[in-house]
Amino acid sequence: MLGERARALYVGPDEATAETYSASLERAGYAVDTAVSPASCVDSIAPDTECVVCSLALGDTSGLAVLGAVRESYPDLPFVLVARDGSEAVASDAIAAGVTDYLPADGGGGVPTDLIERVDAAVEGGRERTASGTEGRVLRDLGETVSSSDRSLTEEVESLLEVGREALGMDYATLSRVEGEEFVLEAVDGAPGVDMTTGDRFPIDATNCERVVEADETVVRAGTETDAIGADDPPVRIDGGVSRYIGTPVTDGTDVCGTLCFYAEESEAVSVSERDVAVVELLGRLVSDCIQRDRYADRLSSFEAAFPDVGLVLDADGRFRDCIAGATASALLYDDPEHMVGQTVHEVLPQGTADAIQAAVDEALDTGRLQSVEYELDVQAGTRYFEGRAAAVAGGEYGPERVVFVARDITERTERERRLERAETSFRNAQDGIFLVDVADGEFVIECVNPAYEALTGLAADDVRGRTPREVLGDEIGGEVVERYRECVEHGEPIEYVEQVPLPSEETHWKTKVAPIGEAGEVRKLVGATRDITERTEREEELAYRRALLEAQAETGIDGLLVVDSGRNVRYHNDRFLDIWNIPRSVADAQSDRKLLDAVRDTVADPEAFFEKVEHLYDNPEAVSRDTIRLEDGRYLDRYSAPVVDGETQYGRLWVFRDVTDEKEREVALKRQRDELAALHRVDTLIRGIMKRLQHASTRDEMETAVCAHLTETDLYQTAWIGTTEKQSDGDPTVTPRTASGVDDAYLEGIPQTNNPAARAARTGSVEVIPDVETDDGFPDSRREIALDHGHHALATVPLTTGDTTYGVLVVYAPREHVIDDEERAVLADLGRIVAYAIQRVQSQRSLTAESVFELRMRVEDTDLAYGRVTAELNCELRFERQVPTSGGSAIQYFTVRGAEPDRVADRLEAAAFVEACTVARRGDDGTGLLEVVVDGGGASPFDVVTNHGASLTEGRVRDGDIALTAEAAPGIDVRGLVGAIQAVAPGATLASKRLRDRRTTTVPEVKGWISDELTQKQEAALSAAYTRGYFEWPRESTAEEVAAPMDVSSATLHYHLRNGLQTLLSMYFEPDCRHAL
């Protein structure tokens, strides 16, 4: 039988069967409800029904259908199915539908003999499942309650009371607090119809809770009201009508501070199980824990509020695990604690600080000893200094090791230490002599002096330390000093005096100041400073002299000075001020700044700005200003103004005016020059870049392309093109565009060949500039619109000429903001000459290196040129040797003279207009001589013309007034132009022959073989060793001695072989026969 009465529902096919089963269950102690209508059987289940017993056969339906209906509403309610015609299939269906037990009916149709046993087992199992579910729910509710971190103590207690009351099936629950001889209700849950509220008070001895507190144990009462209270205890209001009572003590960690009680008022007696007691005691411990935790939180909050330091918990990785900082320490935090926790020190703090703290944490964990570290950190309170202490906390079995780190603000201490350090430094390094005197026992004993005191007085510290003034200076002078000290002690205030004390140093006059040091009016020490005033007196005299000098300077200087006090009254002005501003002395005598301003109002060019600045400076007494003022008469004044101050006292304002008209004009001129130089520098840089490109060009096309491309790579020029020139029958040249950059062919095709700036440059041989394409009459009207559409607003045409030979014209176009001045014009002219010479060089090289050349033979008979006249008059012969250009634009021509005295020939040639100088360079034994003729390079002779046009002069002779020339010109050289140029200087010149000749190709081995044949063995060895050892480098990599030593010859011998070897090589290159061989 079950220990407690249970209720069951029987569902049968008819009333008779129902009565039979009901009687059997009632005899077993069950309260039985019956239902013979399967459709309403679910509605017949009472709230306290603990089992359904159902027959399988129910007329139109079956017990399996009833089982399905019950399971839909009561999935856990025990269900016993009785089957008269049962089978395995029925049993399987019942189990699948969730039957609790299945048993066959009695063979005679009666109640099965083991029905009661089966129902008891079903009910007991149901109760166990219910109890297990209830306990699980209770534990979950308790866990949720105590684990919630956002609940207050009151909310936690109320939730625990509610959970406990529902789990125990009690009517109400209370938490009371012991206060003296009374109980105070802290929380109440339930209590329907009971007049109890939080805050009610009851005498301790009037309740069952008294025994809970006195015995410090759980008290259980069950039964009637009298049983609950006890026969000897009169009933009281709070316990009246109670059938069940469970009370347990609540502690604050050490003492019982109250009780947790649960009450029931059932009409029937219900026993209290051990489980109920265990639940209440568990709740008591939880409430006690909540109280302790709340008190701990209160204490922790108070501790945080009072704790002046920042407390941190870090793990071994330096990760913040907790942060404690009260209101007093919150300003010392580097970051929000919520942001810090979970991050490492290196993720939060600056690198240096993080490294120092991590090192302290590591050391604390490694050694187990307290570690200390100091660091500086910018926090909310500003830049602060901290002392951090790190202590390791063992992790144990339930967690890793931690480090408690406490950071204390030591800013004030650090600053005190630094002030003390600065004070000690000042004491040691002060220029005044400082001393400290102990006044204890009425004696004045010198404790210490600084180095300056020793230097000033000549008294060593060891000589005065521990001694009185009388012992150091004698009774008379020392007694006077003591009296001064006593005066300071008696008045308790600093005193200052001048004294004359003879000391080992030669200084005798001192200014001394002594101040008392003590507490509560008791002077314990004196600190004094003494200074030699002899030097100060001398300085005062020097200052007086300087003042007089400054006043003289103010009156004789070039600046106008004006001093105005705070009331804007004139305190001083010099005569120069009046002269600069042309102010009458009568106005100045009024000593009014405002009258002075009125006097100059019409003098300044911008009165409004002038007076606005004046008023601004007077409104801002501490402001300093400097600016330039323009006057109506065109002058400029430099205006400087500053406050006149002495310490913190301000006396007024100083105004200084200087006429800077000349400087201003120089500045404008200098700025203009700087701008011009900057532009010229850019052009010059551009030209240098072009020169570099020309050095690497091997053809005229490459040169022209490089020049045009480089000119348009910058913003100086938008377009550049080069055209070739050709003279017309009337002598005027035409210019045809050949190479361009920055425009297309269509633009070039429309440029006229004559009557344009390019043709004028070719005709005049000078740079032509069109400063404004839009308005300049020198620019063709037909091209004006298209040029402006391309952004061409200015242009320059540059002849590519060497002086006597013009190879073409360079044209550059500039944007609107670019002005082509005279300096740039000169640079462009130089560029034109450079390009012309480069073209000439390329053509000359082609003439020298071409595999096929035109051999030209020309004659000039009975010429009136200087060379011809000399040979005709002196009956001699001149043979042209070579021409050497010079950097100055002239050329040196060498001629061998035969048949006449070389000196006479030289004198005659030097008289020629185109000859700058003529000397005899070398004389031969046969009466011949080598003439060196310096010509102006202007192409005044056929020899110049051939060279200037890029041809190679292979032979030239002048005899009996006739000139015979043989030249080689590479294909591509303008032979007609060359002949025409020769005819221009020698009108009788004729082209005798012109033929294309192939040159012999010489291989490198052949050349080396010829050279080796010409050199002796010793010459070749000397040249090879010298070259290999860098003797010909600059600076030399080896000396002659170093080259000669391994060859076992002297340096003189080496020089002999080198000189002869070089002579041989140069002869092979320059002598005509050898040169042709090479």
UniProtKB/TrEMBL annotation:
Residues 7-120 form the Response regulatory domain. GO terms for molecular function: kinase activity. It comes from the Archaea. Pfam families: BAT, GAF_2, HTH_10, PAS_4, PAS_8. The keyword Metal-binding does not apply. Transmembrane segments: none annotated. InterPro entries: BAT_GAF/HTH-assoc, CheY-like_superfamily, GAF, GAF-like_dom_sf, HTH_bacterioopsin, PAS, PAS-like_dom_sf, PAS_4. CDD domains: PAS. The keyword Transcription applies. Keywords: Kinase, Transcription, Transcription regulation, Transferase. Residues 419-492 form the PAS domain. Gene3D superfamilies: 3.30.450.40, 3.40.50.2300, PAS domain. NCBIfam families: sensory_box (TIGR00229). This is PAS domain-containing protein. It comes from Haloarcula salina. The lineage of its organism: Archaea, Methanobacteriati, Methanobacteriota, Stenosarchaea group, Halobacteria.
